[in-house]
TrEMBL record:
Belongs to the TonB-dependent receptor family. It comes from the Bacteria. InterPro entries: Beta-barrel_TonB, Beta-barrel_TonB_sf, CarboxyPept-like_regulatory, Plug_dom, Plug_dom_sf, TonB-dep_rcpt-like. This is TonB-dependent receptor. It is a multi-pass membrane protein. The keyword Lipid biosynthesis does not apply. Residues 115-237 form the TonB-dependent receptor plug domain. Residues 1-20 form the signal peptide. Residues 398-816 form the TonB-dependent receptor-like beta-barrel domain. It comes from Hymenobacter metallicola. It is found in: Cell outer membrane.
Length: 855
């Protein structure tokens, strides 16, 4: 029925415009120097009707409007809108520069800095272009397949990480990348990742709370920037720029599903993913005031990938992606007070409900009660996640200075539930669903920034300064009593306590913690000559729980020729451990070689960690350097090469697990009635060396056709230089942060990821062909043996067609070759499946269709 409705709507929209008289517009697009811009996109505003310029910069476009507005854009140039009259359209595009009237390009606070001549490497990703022609729907997966330096994968069997995908830049931790929205710090998730192959022991920012339909572009600064933006920016910065378009309504409906390989039943497809969104911008007055709003709904169903032969029997009956329902609303707005002043407000809310598979309890398991589940059971870990953010600010011009004053609030609340479960100590009277507790993280930020450009100082001097006060709060709250308590009264019988699948947080785990931070910065960019730029930044930070730190960054860029630019940066950085890493405490069930073991993760600075000699957490520090070149040959070819070096000292990691028979701390663990224990610690120093390569080429191909080709690659090598211990565990480095845990850190930094994309458009037809090569990674199984995941290449294909000027249909497949990671014994992997969550995911071929309307 849904398919019939979609087709009917498309036919009505197509026929409604068929009767109108058409006209053909022609024109030419040049750059500031008068050279033709090849492959520039020319689109009739509010429609999907568009074309591209040829090798002489000329275009021809049929339209039914009398005097249409045309939007002209090209990589490296500022978009421009013109009204087409009766004669030929002539457009001169300026290089893309930042403006305080909109949003700064991340990495520079200069009002006059272009993306192509930035001293630091910046990727600009146009989300409108990406979302209309690829199968991915959420922000994490979109970036995973278009930005080689960005890594994220869905996880399963990983408790909370099943519901919040961890992501990273240049192979560092999820918490070492700072996320901004419209240039303002986005709050982190309350979740700290404990399982899975990526982000273990890390907190991070949940990018998927922001619907892709609300985003105009994403800017990725691939360079250390703690001196510019503060804590967490060791690996780089991701700036999400929300839409500000007006008088344009966009609506889209998307659906896709996977080939159902490795299922127990005969289902041909699973993991159905339905998304619907609506975006509209309303202009207010003549001074650029606007309100742009987005509503988004996404429902992703379970996949089942447990039917893989195991020499030791099946580890799990249920294994695959969780079921997730996401509902969100986002707003971006600006209200002009005068020609020089305006108020801005943006933010949104996201509600997520997740159902994830936990480990199977078979019928003869001593954690099962046959009277309730005669055939055993598969617990479900549920999540209810509320995420809200709101930013309000005031911008004005004062005596040549641009002032920005803002208030920023954000909160993430994660509540666990357990269904299809039981508490074995209650026997047949046990309930089957439980409230297991959860945690919440919030931030309040007040910031003040000043920027001024002195055009008469040499070739231009830009100065920026500001201050920021931030307060963070973290709470961990207990679940209901039956989710954690052991009701067994017979001391001669051992019975598992708490809800199976995920024991609830106990009252002794609960905590309320907070801290404040004050930061002040100054940075400057000086153009000594038209060819040579020098830049520097200095930032002071003071935390109530860590003291003070001072960090700096120095950058330079030199234009050797009109077509070749050299650039380089050096910076120091820091990251304060998150409140979750400091205060998290839990006793949970881990499965080691298929056998359940109770594990204590003890809070830092608790009586337990002090007794065991685990030191207090301290900040991570870093030194990083970036040396690169950019080359632009005309308007059709651009190349960037950036080599980088990042050294992180005192990295916060999750240690190996110590058993109750340990010769040093075993008696202490036995007294705590746990089989194993692990901790957060500043246990490792890491060093990363890598290279980013991006090559773009535009070619006019056929009558009005355009072929954009992109080769983008990241080559990375991460080493663990030193493991450090202290107290009673001194000298036991290989046990404290052992080879298995080290392998998880290294696997988050694969040796390479290479993306080759061909994007062709002609008239109403479009085709996108993309190859992504994920390099080999190595993990270690529960027996201590290596698991070598071989390199894999996935192929994506999308075909699109504009049914009318306003309606576009796209169909395609991601992972067309149905490629899976290397298979292993499910009894020996981290999550009990035939593979760990690595590389490109483990669901196989995905088919999808998208219908988009734009008015």
């Amino acid at each position: 029925m849904r398919k019939i409705t979609i087709v009917a709507v498309a036919m009505c929209l197509t026929s409604a415009t068929a009767w109108a008289q058409s006209q053909t517009l022609s024109g030419r697009v040049l750059d500031a120097a008068g050279r033709p811009v090849i492959g520039a996109t020319v689109v009739e505003k509010g429609t999907n009707n568009g074309t591209a310029t040829d090798n002489d910069g000329r275009f021809s476009l049929s339209t039914r409007a009398a005097a249409p507005r045309l939007v002209i854009s090209s990589i490296g140039f500022a978009s421009q809108e013109v009204t087409a009259g009766s004669g030929e359209v002539s457009v001169s595009l300026a290089e893309a520069t930042t403006s305080l009237g909109t949003v700064q390009v991340v990495g520079s606070r200069s009002q006059n800095r272009s993306v192509t001549d930035s001293p630091s490497p910046v990727d600009i990703i146009d989300l409108r272009e990406v979302t209309t022609r690829t199968g991915q729907l959420d922000v994490n997966q979109l970036l995973q397949f278009v930005a080689p330096s960005f890594n994220s994968n869905r996880q399963t069997g990983s408790d909370g990480a099943d519901h919040v995908d961890p992501a990273s830049l240049r192979g560092l931790g999820p918490d070492q990348t700072l996320v901004l929205v419209n240039g303002k710090r986005q709050h982190q998730s309350a979740l700290v990742n404990l399982f899975g192959s990526r982000g273990r022991g890390n907190t991070g920012t949940d990018l998927n709370v922001i619907p892709a339909a609300s985003i105009e572009r994403i800017e990725i600064l691939r360079d250390g920037a703690a001196a510019q933006y503060g804590s967490d920016a060791i690996a780089g910065v991701i700036n999400i720029v929300l839409k500000s378009s007006v008088k344009e309504l966009t609506a889209s409906v998307n659906y896709g599903a996977y080939d159902a390989k490795y299922r127990f039943d005969d289902e041909k497809f699973d993991g159905g993913n339905f998304n619907a969104n609506l975006n509209y911008g309303l202009g207010l007055g003549e001074r650029g005031s606007f309100i742009n709003a987005t509503l988004d709904y996404n429902k992703r169903e379970h996949t089942q990938r447990a039917n893989v032969p195991s020499p030791d029997g099946l580890a799990r009956r249920e294994y695959g992606d969780p079921e997730v329902t996401n509902v969100s609303g986002y707003l971006n707005s600006k209200f002009a007070l005068s020609d020089k002043s305006h108020i801005y407000v943006f933010g949104g809310a996201n509600k997520r409900r997740g159902d994830a598979f936990a480990w199977t309890r078979f019928a003869d398991d001593d954690r099962n009660v046959p009277a309730i589940y005669p055939n055993g059971f598969d617990p479900i870990i549920t999540s209810d996640i509320w995420d809200v953010s709101a930013v309000a600010g005031f911008r004005t011009s004062l005596g040549g200075w641009e002032l920005d004053l803002s208030e920023n609030f954000g909160s993430n609340r994660f509540e666990y539930g357990v269904e299809n479960s039981l508490n074995a100590s209650l026997g047949a009277s046990s309930p089957t669903s439980f409230d297991a507790g959860g945690f919440q993280l919030s931030q309040d930020i007040v910031s003040l920034g000043l920027t001024r450009n002195f055009k008469t100082v040499l070739q231009g001097l830009n100065v920026a300064a500001g201050a920021e006060w931030r307060r963070e709060r973290y709470s961990l709250f207990a679940g209901e009593e039956k989710s954690y308590r052991n009701y067994n009264t017979d001391p001669n019988v051992e019975v598992a306590s708490g809800s199976q699948g995920f024991p609830g947080f106990q009252p002794t785990d609960a905590i309320e913690a907070k801290r404040s931070n004050f930061g002040a910065y100054v940075d400057a960019e000086l153009s000594l000559t038209p060819q040579w730029l020098l830049a520097g930044a200095l930032r002071f930070e003071n935390y109530t729980d860590f003291g003070s730190t001072l960090n700096y960054k120095a950058s330079t860029r030199y234009n050797l020729t009109e077509f070749l630019t050299l650039r380089g940066t050096y910076s120091t950085g820091f990251r304060a451990p998150s409140l979750a890493q400091i205060n998290f405490n839990s006793t949970f069930t881990n499965f080691i070689g298929g056998e359940p073991v109770e594990v204590l993760l003890a809070r830092n600075n608790s009586a337990v960690t002090r007794k065991l000699g685990i030191p207090s957490l301290k900040q991570e520090t870093s030194n990083s350097a970036n040396v690169g070149l950019t080359s632009r040959i005309g308007s059709s070819l651009s190349l960037t090469l950036d080599g980088y070096y990042i050294k992180v000292k005192d990295r916060v990691v999750l240690t190996s697990q110590f058993s109750a028979d340990d010769p040093v701390i075993g008696e202490d663990l036995q007294a705590l009635n746990v089989g194993q224990a692990q901790f957060f610690a500043n246990a490792a120093d890491t060093r990363s060396i890598g290279l980013d390569v991006v090559l773009n080429h535009a070619l006019a191909l056929g009558a009005g056709g355009r072929l954009n080709s992109t080769l983008a690659a990241n080559f990375n090598r991460l080493r663990i230089d030193r493991v450090q211990t202290s107290g009673r565990l001194t000298g036991r480095e290989e046990e404290f942060f052992g080879a298995r845990e080290q392998a998880f850190v290294k696997a988050s930094a694969p040796p390479s990821k290479i993306n080759l994309t061909f994007d062709y458009k002609v008239s109403r037809f479009g085709a996108l062909l993309r190859f992504v090569r994920f390099d080999k990674v190595q993990l270690i199984d529960w027996n201590g043996d290596p698991m070598n995941y071989k390199a894999r290449t996935t192929t994506d294909l999308t075909l699109s067609y504009s049914l009318s000027d306003h309606v576009q249909l796209a169909i395609g497949s991601s992972n067309l070759g149905n490629v899976y990671p290397t298979l292993f014994n499910p009894q020996l992997t981290e999550t009990g499946g035939a593979w760990d969550p690595v590389q490109m995911g483990a669901n196989g071929r995905f088919y999808f269709a998208k219908l988009q309307a734009r008015f």
